[in-house]
Design brief:
The complex is a heterodimer of chains A (328) and B (276). By secondary structure, chain A is mainly alpha-helical. Chain A has helices at 3-17, 20-49, 53-68, 75-93, 103-114, 118-127, 132-137, 139-144, 150-184, 214-242, 246-266, 284-288, 299-323, and strands at residues 192-195, 198-200, 203-205, 210-213. Chain A has one domain (3-49, 99-323). In chain A, helix 5 runs parallel beside helix 10, helix 9 runs antiparallel to helix 10 and helix 10 packs parallel to helix 13. The longest helix of chain A has 35 residues, at 150-184. The mean pLDDT of chain A is 88. Chain B is an alpha/beta fold and 276 residues long. Chain B has a single domain (60-274), classed as Rossmann fold. Helix content of chain B is 52%, strand content 10%. Chain B has helices at residues 2-34, 74-77, 86-98, 116-125, 127-135, 145-156, 166-190, 214-229, 243-246, 248-251, 261-274; strands at 66-72, 103-108, 138-142, 195-199, 235-238. In chain B, strands 2-1-3-4-5 form a five-stranded parallel sheet, sandwiched between helices. In chain B, strand 4 (195-199), helix 8 and strand 5 form a beta-alpha-beta unit. The longest helix of chain B is centred in the first third of the chain and has 33 residues, at 2-34. Classes of the chains: A mainly alpha (328), B alpha/beta (276). Chain A: GO terms for molecular function: ABC-type transporter activity.
Chain lengths: 328, 276
């Protein structure tokens, strides 16, 4: 057992030396200023046209309601818009600005927009070749001929991956805050945010709605992001064990995740799609109260489904890795 | 070897720390799921700025800035205007030219198909609407057209217009007028110092022989509505019926119900002429 920390150290340093993490930080350094600029444009546009945020929300509600009366809009879209109207109305009635621009608010927005696609992509960029890469280069034989149990090797890889997933999300949040705060200010920690909206069809059940300070909301979001990123990492690990080629394993995982986002937007007609992992990745939506991709999905449901996929992924990867033959 | 060791320590420390923090966040979510705290149903009605000059005559010239809110149905929304301006935006543009002070359209809250009952309900229950009405000093609105049109259409399913018992339609109109009266009262109560402009109705079917007679009902509505508005010195009604009688082809949009850009321009022109 004493060997495990050393193995984890080895894996962490191997990943570091591949410079993947540096690439991720660079990508964030390029993307976040772009989004900050876009957000800044939106905010200044609103400032120009509206006397204060209440007028802006009122107008937003009126515009949404006008689209509701149109027969051209599909029923599913109307459902989510009705929910949005009720939610905005709730914010208005409680005199809370739902989107007061600040560094914390931007980070919150960024996380909720990147949880389904961007963060999984970063995670896969890091870990999708963690096993298959060793096969391609042949180093797997070196590793497995050492007097170390195979499950320990895989476990050390999993631990290293976990550490990097945490690091990625932490760095994302910190960079978002630092870069966007430069434009929007570094405040907004204690701004109240409403959470706990429950959906029943197109009606919001607001009996459990309550406010949390924004720092807490951001932390909760980051926790959910971490959870869904971990599931992606575990499944990526499994695919990496199963498929020998790095490119193929990357493509497999990416297409699974992209399929999830497409299915989420088509929604409703195929209801059992809610058991697929990639449809459930958007966990932060439940905190904000956006309607789930498929009716009947709730936060506990998604957490359980993801946990089950994760457990299955772990089982398969350990089983195959410890029992399988290493050929080539 | 020494540098890699330090690197490892750093990486391990940072990533373990962030893992712990993120797990705390996840724990908070689970905690939040369990606890269902009672909502404090506080409804702080935001105090809006309003110039309390109810004693003197309300005139746009006395305002430091003009803040406009538009309410009502599709006519106020500007349905039918391909440029999306409607009469509201054209009034705003006209006021900008006419007055040497800031003119801002706070909100155009008009909804397609809105009826008197809906507007009345929002004004009495929706704190957002109340806020908007309180913070404006010029309110433009149109209402009643949908009530009258729907009541007439419901009756028409059975018989020709000319055969319609006038008393049936009149009964509907009486009810609509009652709701209109309470809307006017609410507007005055919410903001007695704002200039309020009501857009009179017109008959879009003037060119159809069998529906031309509906103009008489329309005029009756306009007369009654004017009687409701008249006691309030800060309110005015702008008639529009005559604009559309001879020039339906020019001023109505292709749905033969709403004005087009030119039609709205004429309505806006009337309002600008009347506003002092």
């Amino acid at each position: 057992m004493r060997k495990l920390p050393a193995l984890v150290q080895n894996e962490v340093l191997k990943l570091w030396l591949k410079k993947r993490f540096v690439v991720i930080v660079l990508i964030l350094f390029i993307l976040i200023p772009i989004f900050t600029y876009a957000e800044h444009k939106v905010v200044s546009n609103h400032r120009e046209h509206f006397a204060d945020w209440r007028n802006q929300i009122l107008q937003q509600i009126a515009d949404l309601e006008n689209t509701l009366s149109s027969d051209r809009i599909p029923e599913e879209w109307k459902r989510s818009r009705r929910v949005a109207v009720q939610q905005l109305q709730y914010y208005l009635n409680h005199d809370i600005n739902p989107s007061e621009p600040s560094g914390v608010q931007f980070s919150r927005e960024f996380l909720s927009n990147s949880i389904t696609l961007f963060i999984p992509m970063l995670v896969l960029a890091m870990g999708s070749d963690i096993v298959s890469g060793e096969r391609t280069t042949g180093t797997i034989k070196m590793l497995l001929t050492r007097p170390v149990k195979r499950w320990k090797i895989l476990l050390s890889k999993l631990c290293a991956l976990t550490l990097y997933v945490s690091l990625t999300i932490a760095v994302t949040v910190i960079l978002c805050y630092l870069i966007s705060g430069f434009v929007f200010g570094y405040g907004g920690w204690i701004t109240p945010v409403l959470t706990g909206f429950r959906m029943e069809g197109a009606v919001i059940d607001s009996s459990s709605v309550h406010t949390v300070p924004q720092w807490r909301f951001l932390l909760m979001q980051a926790g959910l992001c971490w959870f869904s990123a971990m599931i992606v990492a575990v499944l990526g690990l499994m695919v990496s064990v199963l498929i020998r080629s790095t490119a193929a394993s990357l493509v497999t995982m990416m297409s699974a995740i992209i399929a999830g986002t497409i299915l989420s937007s088509m929604s409703s007609s195929w209801r059992s799609a809610k058991y697929l992992f990639s449809v459930n990745l958007g966990l932060t939506g439940y905190l904000e109260g956006t309607p789930p991709p498929i009716e009947g999905m709730t936060l506990p449901f998604s957490l359980i489904i993801l946990a089950m996929w994760g457990a299955a992924g772990l089982f398969v990867s350990f089983r195959v890795f410890t029992k399988g033959d290493i050929l080539n | 070897m020494k540098t890699t060791r330090w690197l490892w320590y750093w990486l391990a420390a940072c990533s373990l720390l962030s893992t712990v923090v993120l797990l705390t966040g996840l724990g908070m979510v689970l905690n939040d799921l369990k606890a269902v705290p009672a909502v404090s149903e506080t409804k702080p009605s935001p105090s809006a700025p309003s110039e309390t000059t109810s004693e003197e005559r309300v005139s746009l010239g006395n305002f430091k800035e003009i803040r406009i809110v538009a309410l009502g149905d599709s006519l106020t929304k500007g349905t039918g205007d391909a440029t999306g301006k409607g009469y509201v935006r054209q009034v705003v543009d006209g006021l900008k030219k006419e007055f040497d002070k800031p003119v801002q359209l706070l909100n155009n809250l008009a909804l397609n198909g809105m009826q008197t009952s809906q507007l009345g309900e929002r004004l009495s229950n929706d704190s957002g609407y109340q806020y908007a009405v309180k913070s404006a000093n010029l309110i433009l609105f149109s209402i009643g057209g949908n009530d009258l049109f729907l009541s007439a259409r419901a009756r028409m399913e059975k018989k020709e217009w000319a055969m319609l018992g006038m008393d049936e339609l009149e009964q509907d109109m009486e009810e609509t007028l009652g709701r209109f009266r309470s809307i006017i009262d609410q507007l005055y109560e919410l903001n007695p110092s704002a200039k309020i402009v009501y857009m009179g109705l017109y008959n879009p079917f003037y060119d159809l022989d069998n529906l031309r007679i509906a103009s008489l009902n329309m005029q009756q509505w306009n007369k009654e509505a004017y009687a409701v508005i008249h006691p309030y010195p800060n309110m005015m009604m702008v008639p529009t019926f005559d604009l559309f009688e001879g020039r339906i082809g020019e001023y109505l949009s292709s749905d033969h119900f709403h004005p087009n850009h030119e039609g709205y321009k004429r309505i806006a022109g009337r309002m600008l002429e009347a506003l002092d």
